[in-house]
Specification:
There is one protein chain. By secondary structure, this protein is mainly β. The chain has one domain. The chain has strands spanning 9-15, 18-24, 40-41, 67-69, 75-79, 89-96, 107-113, 119-125, 136-142, 147-150, 152-154, 159-163, 165-166, 179-180, 184-193, 204-209. The strands form 5 sheets. A 6-stranded mixed sheet has the order 3-4-6-15-8-11, with no helix packed on it. It is globular, with a radius of gyration of 17 Å. The two termini are 30 Å apart.
Length: 210
Amino acid sequence: MRARVCLVATTLLACGDSTVASDASTGTDASADVAVDTGSIDAASEGSADGEAGAVVDFAGCPSDALKLAKFYPVTFNGDTGSWAYSGKWLSIKMTVPANANQSSSLEMYFSGVYAAGTGSWAISEMACDIDHPIIDPLGSNYAKNKLAYMKGYLTPNIDGFYTYGPTQATTTATGATMAIGKTYYLNVWFDTCSADNTGGCDFSNVKLP
């Protein structure tokens, strides 16, 4: 039986020789679910625009069995990924930062895992289906001590964190935002397990991905 849960989420961010933890909690409003066009695509629809040589291919590098959502972002709150991923599989959400993105403050993202037993890892990367090359988290980094945080963590089974938008992307120096206006990123999730018996599927509800 599919049951939706909201738990306190703990996201671990690797910071050089230290670890930074951030906690967030949320409640579920069963009446607030909204329909979202997730834009799930399959391998047959991954080609480059107009077949032009050298054109950027969406979800390049993802295996054919990955769950790829091209139209899910942005979601202000109570979105639902609406499709199921499974143990040993990828979920990749395309995020092309719009020109009118809010650059005045940090923004919270939140995903509520459907199964409490779900485990895995997530990261925001410039590549699809990738958790090994996360982008820098300038909000969690301590540049003065050369300790960098990254936009990555573990499923608890929730995902939570904060990010910023700006004209430039953060680097190893204390300048730039988490993500740059007009640039494409991917929120990637690798599922180790999706249910207590490792046979059920995973998805997320109460999603906030502004």
